[in-house]
Amino acid sequence: MYARSILAITALIAVAPLAAQSTRDDPAHQAADAREIPQTQALNNQVSSAVTQAQSATQAQNDANQAQYEADKAAYAAALREHHREVLETDARFIRQQEAYAMAMRDWRAQVAMCKKGYQSACNLPTPDPMKYM
Question: Could you tell me the pTM of the whole model?
Answer without folding.
Answer: 0.44
